[in-house]
Write a structure and sequence with these properties.
The complex is a heterodimer of chains A (159) and B (150).
Chain A (H helix, E strand, L loop, with lengths): L2 H7 L10 E8 L6 H11 L4 E4 L3 E7 H12 L6 E6 L10 H4 L6 H8 L2 H10 L6 H5 L11 H10 L1
Antiparallel strand pairs in A: 1-3, 1-4, 2-3
Chain B lengths: L2 E5 L4 H9 L3 E3 L1 H10 L13 H5 L10 H16 L2 E5 L9 H16 L4 E4 L5 H16 L8
Parallel strand pairs in B: 1-2, 1-3, 3-4
Helix pairs in contact in B: 4-5
The chains are: A alpha+beta (159), B alpha/beta (150).
Chain lengths: 159, 150
């Protein structure tokens, strides 16, 4: 069987077709739950497949429609909603924890970064805050920058 | 809109910030999506096929473990395609087997070799560091082609 013929006989799987994208939406907000956001998302784009999860949503659908939905749902809490592409469609048996048991591969990385999300939210809020202008101009530390005495004192106190 | 390679390739924070500030993040998800959506003999299509380690020969020698070459078949074309890159230096979450570890080293090396604009940062550990982190990324992305002035 040629590759083209094999492609024609392939079962249609949601989210697998070319032009379809899947995106994670992570929420780290005290004002908005994944369930709230899921309901609002369905109101905005009923044709898109939306799966509610413990951390937010997984959205699957045509790229233009998903992008439009992302722009709209970011407005609910712009500094605390984070979006990321996903390779596999939701429920894919190669990644879904329902089939594999335990956490989904990749969840640990997201869990790790979500712990830092509040600092990113602070950074995003500061972009609109004129009082933080000095901090915005400050350069991030270099890798070879020596440990400051203040930071050393903090580390000693923490230990 | 510039194509910005993100390291670690699975980073939620970098992926979000790059797309939020108007550019296209290149990471693992896009490479895997391409393979999952490409019709082929494998049903369901595999994210890595036996052909991929051969494609990885472009980036790593034949005696290098196939895991490195397979991963490089995902990341290598994206590094070549990228207009800029953002690297998180203390990305402990990218640890893994030796295949992952060596691929990570090779990815960082190839990004430096390409001489494209690179921004290297550490993860923020406080609000103040978070403010600097976001401001640095915004300023870096604003200087790229198609960026919005900071």
């Amino acid at each position: 069987m040629s590759e083209a013929a094999a492609a024609e006989t392939m079962p249609v799987r949601p989210g697998v077709g070319a032009g379809t994208v899947a995106k994670y939406v992570f929420i780290d907000s005290p004002d908005l739950t994944p369930a709230d956001l899921g309901l609002r998302a369905y109101e905005i784009a009923p044709a898109v497949q939306i799966k509610e999860t413990c951390f937010g949503l997984v959205i699957t659908g045509p790229e233009a429609e998903v992008d439009r939905l992302i722009v709209e749902i970011r407005k609910f809490d712009p500094d605390r909603i984070f979006v990321k592409d996903r390779g596999f469609p939701p429920g894919d048996e190669r990644r879904c924890r329902a089939n594999l048991g335990g956490a989904r591969p990749g969840f640990y990385g997201h869990e790790n970064e979500l712990r830092l999300a509040r600092y990113i939210s602070a950074g995003l809020r500061a972009l609109h805050d004129p009082k933080k202008a000095d901090l915005l101009r400050a350069k991030p530390k270099k890798a070879d920058e020596p440990l400051s005495p203040e930071r050393l004192a903090e580390l000693i106190e923490e230990s | 809109m510039a194509k910005v390679f993100i390291y670690p390739g699975t980073s939620l924070i970098l992926s979000d910030l790059v797309s939020r500030f108007g550019h296209r993040p290149l990471g693992s998800a896009l490479a895997v999506r391409d393979r999952v959506q490409t019709a082929g003999l494998d049903t369901p299509p595999l994210q890595i096929t036996p052909e991929d380690p051969k494609k990885g020969l472009r980036y790593a020698a034949v005696e290098v473990p196939s895991g490195v070459r397979g991963r490089m078949s995902l990341y290598g074309p994206q590094i070549e395609e990228a207009d800029a890159g953002i690297i998180i230096r203390d990305a402990d979450l990218a640890f893994g087997c030796m295949g992952c570890a060596r691929t990570n080293e090779l990815v960082r090396f190839l990004l430096h070799e390409r001489k494209i604009p690179l921004l290297e940062l550490d993860y923020p550990r406080s609000d103040e560091e978070g403010i600097r982190f976001v401001a640095a990324i915004k300023s870096f992305l604003a200087d790229l082609v198609g960026g919005v002035p900071a």
